[in-house]
């Protein structure tokens, strides 16, 4: 048997189109243009690519896009001033501060300063807490994208055994929390877990988010399981060139799983799509109107 | 083999004595008397007993104890006014609003109004979020008591398989989060879990917090496991009298487990002890001094 390949690129395109339709409805019916501001501090090349892509996708969806660039030498006070201004700007509904920040800037203090209602990255502790207890919250984009793909593929998730490998604050923990909210039986495994292969073999849903190339082998996968690979690792091939691989050994797992996300082209494209979706959600909540369902 | 019985009453007494010594040090060396305020709205008999016990234990530990009683007919505004006054009172370091509140009062709004630094119940979403991401937080008393008993019994918890049965916001979820912070491999099971007995049988640490009398049977317990029973259920005996039982069938599990908490006399007594410990923690953090370790 060969697994279904979950096409994250195609699914993300659907999500972005849906967001575009929502934005059109909001503009026409509520005179509301959702606005997303991205703050980039310094010249990190990867961050610059991300920020450019985010700005482009935001504009394509019909939203207002604002990009604020600060020098790598920016002080914490300068970054906080920008955040405060954006918090107060009624045309901005989502604020994203691109990480990592330069050493002289305290990331936690900056994230903490973002109005939780505008925290489209879902990293503010108030959103973490609200999501944990089941209140409406802004949810981190990557785990949100994973849940959307799982529900699209499997329908109802209730009662399924989900294993999340990795316990980071930006993926593993919120992923586990979202799966629990879907009534999965959730196990969080990590570097201290004993006999990780057999823990993984118990999973109907296996989410890998550890950042170790191809760590999860084919025989760790339960036959027919749905495998979501959040890892993006660049490794060197025999010919000296590099390629991107996930945390799962795709060539092995694809023979065992029922469905699997590839790397690249799986979870990755969903992250920006979910950022746009979160911005619409944030704008509607701030305006006190229901999210359109076009 | 018969399991060790974990004597929660004796352990709680040790914790209370330790808190008493800490309070003595704080008074002598820092002129700081930790203060705990308990707010009781209405005449619920069980709540009145709890509040009385809390006040008594607080005073016994040498702390300031304040009890505020409001009529069952109190408005939300009246309750919020009390909370605001206590937030601003520098002699009060911990605020506990006894639940449940009368119907006309929005519990979430009241809990949300408590200064997170004084939230000794650990129910504020900011504390939930801070605990989830690994920042210093006020932690709910019952799961904190369970972790203290587990560490006392087992020492290092890292790498152990922990299964939490139940996913309430006040016990199950924070318990899972605390066990994860101790580097356990954590599974959260609940009413939708398939084949709960075999999930439980995988647990080195089994925490039952479902509120269903004696649901967890002896043959669900892995031989030698440590069983923490958070349930307190009153059931009718054959002779028509009632007795308290846990969520675990104690008479069966005691033959299989390595260690087990009884009901009553297990987790229960730890809750007030942890409330006192949390009040000392809160007072020290508010004063910006280190917690004494006498």
TrEMBL record, chains A, B:
Oligomeric form and interacting partners: Homodimer.
> Protein name, please?
Bifunctional protein FolD
Q: List keywords of the entry alphabetically.
A: Amino-acid biosynthesis, Histidine biosynthesis, Hydrolase, Methionine biosynthesis, Multifunctional enzyme, NADP, One-carbon metabolism, Oxidoreductase, Purine biosynthesis
Q: Which GO terms describe its molecular function?
A: methenyltetrahydrofolate cyclohydrolase activity; methylenetetrahydrofolate dehydrogenase (NADP+) activity
List the pathway annotation. Answer: One-carbon metabolism; tetrahydrofolate interconversion
Q: Name the Pfam families on file.
A: THF_DHG_CYH, THF_DHG_CYH_C
Q: Which spans of this chain does the record mark as coiled coil? A: none
Question: Which gene carries the instructions for this protein?
Answer: folD
Q: Which InterPro entries match?
A: Aminoacid_DH-like_N_sf, NAD(P)-bd_dom_sf, THF_DH/CycHdrlase, THF_DH/CycHdrlase_cat_dom, THF_DH/CycHdrlase_CS, THF_DH/CycHdrlase_NAD-bd_dom
**PANTHER family membership:** C-1-TETRAHYDROFOLATE SYNTHASE, CYTOPLASMIC, C-1-TETRAHYDROFOLATE SYNTHASE, CYTOPLASMIC-RELATED
Q: Which residues form the Tetrahydrofolate dehydrogenase/cyclohydrolase NAD(P)-binding domain?
A: 140-286
Q: Does the keyword Hydrolase apply?
A: yes
What Enzyme Commission number(s) appear in the record?
1.5.1.5, 3.5.4.9
Described function: Catalyzes the oxidation of 5,10-methylenetetrahydrofolate to 5,10-methenyltetrahydrofolate and then the hydrolysis of 5,10-methenyltetrahydrofolate to 10-formyltetrahydrofolate.
Q: Which SUPFAM superfamilies does the UniProt record give?
A: Aminoacid dehydrogenase-like, N-terminal domain (SSF53223), NAD(P)-binding Rossmann-fold domains (SSF51735)
**In which residues is NADP(+) bound?**
166-168, 232
Record flagged with keyword Oxidoreductase: yes
UniProt similarity note = Belongs to the tetrahydrofolate dehydrogenase/cyclohydrolase family.
Natural source organism? Sneathiella marina
The Tetrahydrofolate dehydrogenase/cyclohydrolase catalytic domain sits at: 6-121
User: What reaction gets catalysed by this protein?
Assistant: (6R)-5,10-methylene-5,6,7,8-tetrahydrofolate + NADP(+) = (6R)-5,10-methenyltetrahydrofolate + NADPH; (6R)-5,10-methenyltetrahydrofolate + H2O = (6R)-10-formyltetrahydrofolate + H(+)
């Amino acid at each position: 048997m060969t697994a279904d390949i979950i096409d994250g690129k195609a699914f993300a395109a659907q999500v972005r189109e849906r967001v575009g339709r929502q934005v059109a409805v909001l503009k026409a019916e509520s005179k509301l243009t959702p606005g997303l501001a991205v703050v980039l501090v310094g010249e990190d090349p990867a961050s610059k690519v991300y920020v450019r892509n985010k700005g482009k996708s935001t504009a394509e969806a019909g939203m207002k896009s604002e990009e604020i660039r600060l020098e790598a030498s920016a002080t914490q006070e300068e970054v906080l001033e920008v955040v405060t201004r954006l918090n107060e700007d009624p045309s901005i509904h989502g604020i994203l501060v691109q990480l990592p920040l330069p050493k002289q800037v305290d990331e936690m203090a900056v994230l903490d300063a973002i109005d939780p209602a505008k925290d489209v990255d879902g990293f503010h502790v108030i959103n973490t807490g609200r999501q944990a207890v089941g209140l409406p919250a802004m949810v981190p984009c990557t785990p949100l994208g994973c849940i959307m793909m799982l529900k699209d593929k499997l329908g109802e998730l209730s009662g399924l055994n989900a294993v999340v490998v990795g316990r980071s604050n930006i993926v593993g923990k919120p992923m586990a929390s979202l799966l629990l909210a879907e009534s999965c039986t959730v196990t969080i495994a990590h570097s201290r877990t004993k006999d990780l292969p057999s823990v993984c073999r118990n999973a109907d849903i296996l989410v890998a988010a550890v950042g170790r190339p191809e760590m999860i082998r084919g025989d760790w996968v339960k036959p027919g399981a749905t495998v979501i690979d959040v890892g993006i690792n660049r490794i060197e091939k025999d010919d000296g060139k590099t390629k991107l691989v996930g945390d799962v050994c795709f060539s092995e797992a694809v023979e065992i799983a029922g469905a699997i996300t590839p790397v690249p082209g799986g979870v990755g494209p969903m992250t920006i799509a979910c950022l746009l979706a979160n911005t619409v959600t944030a704008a509607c909540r701030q305006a006190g109107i229901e999210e359109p369902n076009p």
